[in-house]
């Protein structure tokens, strides 16, 4: 089982690294979105500091959604997915491996690039660390929930827009606590641990829920 | 029998609330009736095609 | 007398019953609404001063907000039954409930705005309950969008049921996170439930309106199910032999 996981993870990573532009698109999308906000709302330093966590998280939500459509679609089109469904390996392991690959390719780069937000929005060091921590816990949730949406809209016309319609409401708790923890960390008597443990709990919930729902959705899509 | 108290300046707000509710709740059955007629027309066309094929 | 409920799980047997019941439901809902509103507008004492007459929006506001939430629960319940027993009719119920639920959710936001403007001085506030109703509306829209994006009815039924069930798990989480953006203090701006303090006349009128909206929903859902049945089963013999289809 673990072997299957590693194997599919390696395969997806190899495939993705052959098309580097796809990975880079996500990162640059994130950078461009966060760079556009100051142009739109003005360059007042205090205002920027105030909106930075929310802007960073919304940019992260949208960026992680960009690559979702391709999560299963290429496998669906060339028939690999059907083979995966027929294989004796449990489907949730396969799903989990593909989600992990998606996170490594879109979530992790966002975590690593997020200090740039601190630079552009005048955040101090502690808050940047907190934002990276929140993104580190939060982006896997985005990938996990995203997999459900990707599986449900597999092979549909206009699937990309539909995915965002289905998923964005479900991302709300991550947005609230992910941005909330950064805001909170600047307060005098903060309770960042509560926020982070809530995010962790949410990660565990989606870890339980998502592979099951994604597997069910994939079976339905390929009937 | 009670009497309707004066709504004062709030007639607009109350009217807008109940007005849209009434509009929606009349519109919905009406739209469903329209839809039903178009669905039935569709089935009738289907039946006719089937009949012609059998003849 | 034993009624064989499973007999009515077949669309062919349910179709005529739904058609027979729907007008009665809608008529009854109309009668109840008239009673409720008469009670609400003519029989309630003016416990609130003349300046606060806008509270009379409560009868439509609370009823539609409750319907918006309950219909989502009903939708999920039918989706669940559909997945467990794999009956076509349950999926049709779920699909038929969604538009009415979305309508009531929108109505509660609309009437809430018209209540908020005179009482709070603003059409919209990011109050937890308003925000959760808005998100509920998004969930309905997502469900309907997914349903209509898939052409094959069997796949669209099952896929949207999975979505509804994911929504069921997520709704408490979303609701909680909206309610407590700061986990240390969960403050609700909307006054907390004050059911006991309400004047019994107002409360009774409100409950009659809720009953009216429930029965209205039954009626409209029956009408919509009939349309769905006709659309999906037009190749079957019993539909083609219906007298209205000749």
Question: What does this entry look like structurally?
Answer:
The complex is a heterotrimer of chains A (223), B (55) and C (246). Chain A is mostly helical. Helix content of chain A is 83%, strand content 0%. Chain A contains eleven helices and no strands. In chain A, helix 1 packs across helix 6. Chain B is mainly alpha-helical. The longest helix of chain B has 44 residues, at 11-54. Chain C has one domain (20-45, 56-182, 197-245). Helices cover 73% and strands 0% of the residues of chain C. The longest helix of chain C is centred in the middle third of the chain and has 33 residues, at 88-120. Chain C starts with 10 loop residues before the first helix and ends in a 6-residue tail after the last helix. The model of chain C has no long low-confidence stretch (mean pLDDT 84).
Keywords, separated by commas or semicolons:
heterotrimer; B: 55 residues; mainly alpha; 0% strand; C: 246 residues; globular
Q: Please state the CA-atom Rg of chain C, rounded to the nearest Å.
A: 20 Å
| Helix coverage percent of chain C | over 70%
Task: Report the mean per-residue pLDDT of chain A as an integer.
Answer: 88
Gap between N and C termini of chain A: 25 Å
What is the beta-strand fraction of chain C? under 5%
Major beta sheet summary of chain C: none
Tell me, briefly, the overall form of chain C: globular
Weakly predicted, low-confidence segments of chain C: none
What is the H/E string of chain A?
HHHHHHHHHHH
Provide a compact summary of the structure:
Chain B has 55 residues and is mostly helical.
Set out the fold topology.
The complex is a heterotrimer of chains A (223), B (55) and C (246).
Chain A (H helix, E strand, L loop, with lengths): L1 H17 L1 H22 L3 H22 L3 H8 L2 H7 L4 H23 L1 H6 L4 H28 L6 H9 L4 H14 L6 H30 L2
Chain B lengths: L10 H44 L1
Chain C lengths: L10 H32 L15 H28 L2 H33 L7 H22 L3 H27 L20 H33 L4 H4 L6
